[in-house]
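New to this. Please check both lines:
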Amino acid sequence: MAYLRKKSMEFLKSFEVPSKNPSEDAQRRWRDAVGTLVKNRRRRFRMVPDLDKRSQAETQRRKIQEKLRVALYVQKAALQFIDAARRTAEQHPLPELARQCGFSISAEELASVVRGHDGKSLRHHKGVDGVARKVNVSLSTGVKADDAGVRAEVYGSNTYAEKPARTFWMFLWDASQDMTLMLLALCAVVSVVIGVATEGWPGGVSDGAGIMLTIALVVAITAASDYKQSLQFRDLDKEKKKIDIQVTRDGLRQKVSIYDIVVGDVVHLSIGDQVPADGLFIDGYSFFVDESSLSGESEPVHVSANNRFLLGGTKVQDGSARMLVTAVGMRTEWGNLMETLSQGGEDETPLQVKLNGVATIIGKIGLAFAVLTFTVLMARFLLAKANANALLVWGMEDALSVLNFFAVAVTIIVVAVPEGLPLAVTLSLAFAMKKLMQERALVRHLSACETMGSASCICTDKTGTLTTNHMVVEKVWLAGAATTVSTAKGFEELVTASALSSEGFTKVLLEGVFHCSGSEVVRGKDGRTSIMGTPTETALLEFGLGVEKRTGVDHGAAATKHRVEPFNSVKKTMGVVIASPSAGGRPRAFLKGASEVVLRKCSAVVNDRHGGVETLTEKNAKRVAGAIDAFACEALRTLCLAYQDVPVGAENAAEIPGEGYTLLAVFGIKDPLRPGVREAVRTCHAAGINVRMVTGDNINTAKAIARECGILTEDGVAIEGPEFRQMSPDQMREVIPKIQLMARSLPLDKHTLVTNLRGMFGEVVAVTGDGTNDAPALHEADIGLAMGIAGTEVAKENADVIIMDDNFSTIINVAKWGRSVYINIQKFVQFQLTVNVVALIVNFVSASFTGSAPLTIVQLLWVNLIMDTLGALALATEPPSDAMMRRPPVGRGDNFITKVMWRNIVGQSIYQLLILGVLLFRGKALFHMDAGADELLNTFVFNTFVFCQVFNEVNSREMEKVNVFSGVFSSWVFSAVVGATVAFQAVLVELLGTFAGTVHLSGRLWLMSVLIGSVSLPVGALLKCIPVGSGDGASSDRHDGYQPIPTGPSAV
């Protein structure tokens, strides 16, 4: 046994793949290890990527990228290279429909301008303004909403060619490609032919017809289950592709779906956005685009008035801009590339691969048993003929007997090769993903749902995840005094008794608030004013609107912006240079951002209510820093706003001034803790999941929030990013396990923390992120969690799960469902292996001693359906319980089939084998049956065997707890499957006896079948009182202090 176990472990090493970005070698290794012992390759590998197709798609994608690289970087050659086949003598005739609708340029000509980066053609069309006139759109008011449909008809819609969805009939065809079912169908046909020849019609048809009807039932149920899964995945795919983008239509800025974009739309782009279509740069600031997804070049491209071409599918790396859409859908290069992106399917999950390995080992054992059973049956048959001196005399009945032996052997393979194991993972994941979608979590990658169940650490942002992200300015520090402005009374005091009583100071402050902002005040169709932008800037603009309303001072909306440096998480500031109305149109720079960063760049401060300025001495700096710390200790986010006058002629300098600013104000912004966060953090700790807050905020603000939600404890470490960055690897190794809070961190710090948690400590790490610069950490983590509301498209694309409501509590639901998937598959494997063991041994032993198998082909096929498709439906779709979050996560190195599972499998198998053995050899005597009542006994054995599986299915709901009925009615699928199994068993025995090889059972025998089967429940309870070791998994000695849950009576 030790030798077999060692060989099995060595074999299963081929079935180990990482949860993210597995290498092609690892993927091919396990496929080769599976070999040819696969009943239905089409179905078993349906959710596994086709590596050959993927390789072909990759080659095609590289060709397109190479073509685009030429177009982007060798433009003159590109004009002949890329469009030679498309152009006809430089002419693109204008379709009649376009002319009737008021357009004066064709879709092909318009698309070719951007696709070929054709500056000459753009100049020919009089630049962006000329193109706008030809597509009949105003760059200031945008497309008229009523014209969108006409534009889509003339220039096309922003959709891409997709493979048609698979129909139910395709799944039916896949399910019918099972090699063993085909062999059985062939046997059934031969059986019908021989049966009619020997017994006539209709008596000779029953055996073969029964097999064929059962095969049809198996195929139909299997196909229906697979088709339902495909519908769930199709719905999830639609959700994944939903991207909203900001456009100007009817003069109003609004959000529309990326698929509703039309030619002529004026699109607003900012950091992290995906460019939704091909287009031309209208205006913008510091605008850089990452074109690597198209060209393969990693260097960002600066898009400006000198290079106006924007390609769909690229990502905004920095800055902001407006774009005029010129080509959509399949007329863009991104549209052509999209056809290759989905080729080959999504990567298989580690659990799918592991279970393919388990299925392969069991399949080999089953094949050996099938061969042995056929050999024993044939040997006994030939021996009997030899004893009767009829070895050379063969008739139709003899041929039918041999055919039946062969069919029994094939059916044993059907039962023994558990094709349903890896497919049960897909079923469970599809169910979990659908439920998570309802709970506001969109799973982008299958493996993430599975891996999240093993998460031992969550590195979470603060803003918007732990807090509500509904921000308001709570306090403001102006001219040496702090005022609470969240109440009407406080706001009035600020306006009348502070520096805001000075009109000159108020103008400067309002210019800074409104112009040094990436957000915008817009007026809706109903005339109401709203703000489009980030919650932080929304809070500041709402404050500015309040000041304008109360003071009557205008912020000078028409001021020209000379230069803008948008906010990003590395600089932690935003800067702008404007022609200041309050300075007579002279250039003035404003700087806004993290308090200590802005304060370091200031050399003066507004010091009195009249707007007077004095030098920022050490004493004044300490006074400002004290105000910042006071705000932060009240859990307020702090921002500083500063300004300086710029010399005339220097406004167009390459960079905004880096020092010499005058401090205007310090804002304290309130962002309340989300309801339920404290409970969610407590749940994480009970589940053995460490929660670490990683934020760019001030450390005092972060500490206050972390303590409030229970993340920061007395023995925990709070550290700042700059300090963490300076540590050596040895210092990091010592401090990382204690870190509960990292403040003032850069995205690189988050990436370093995640890398070390995974590499040094073997943690399974989940990371939240929303910004473009969070992409490396999201990609590096075992599970990347992007925010659905605050998250950029770049962050979402690099994430495994999108948290649609940005709520930390939703992350806990993902972890709970992840654990549910893992445990549900363990339950199903335990149940299926028990059926495998019993069915194999009963048939083999019976064939050896009696010369016939007690379970007929139809009966074995029914048992296979119970333990495969129906078993997976019942056990793999159970909802999670709160108890799952009161146990530690599964470690990276833990065995999937645990000692607890082996205990249950072996114990239940021994009970069932003993009972069925007694019934087979002593059943007639025990139940006073006639000596020739073989059919009655076999029917009784079959019925008892099925009820043993039904009650063992109930037993498998809990692997370690005695109470297996807890929450049984909360899973209607489980109840429905068990009820349907019992009902169909009654029909099979009592009404379909001719086809199933059964006879009528009396009420007494039915009762005995149920009672014997129900003994599985107390047997299961007794087994669970037998303690087993924790195994040799990696989680037996965890550095986080958690131990595996106990087994035995204490777990009851």
In short: Confidence is low (pLDDT under 50) at residues 75-89, 1031-1052. The domain at 472-491+555-670 is CATH 3.40.1110.10 (Calcium-transporting ATPase, cytoplasmic domain N).
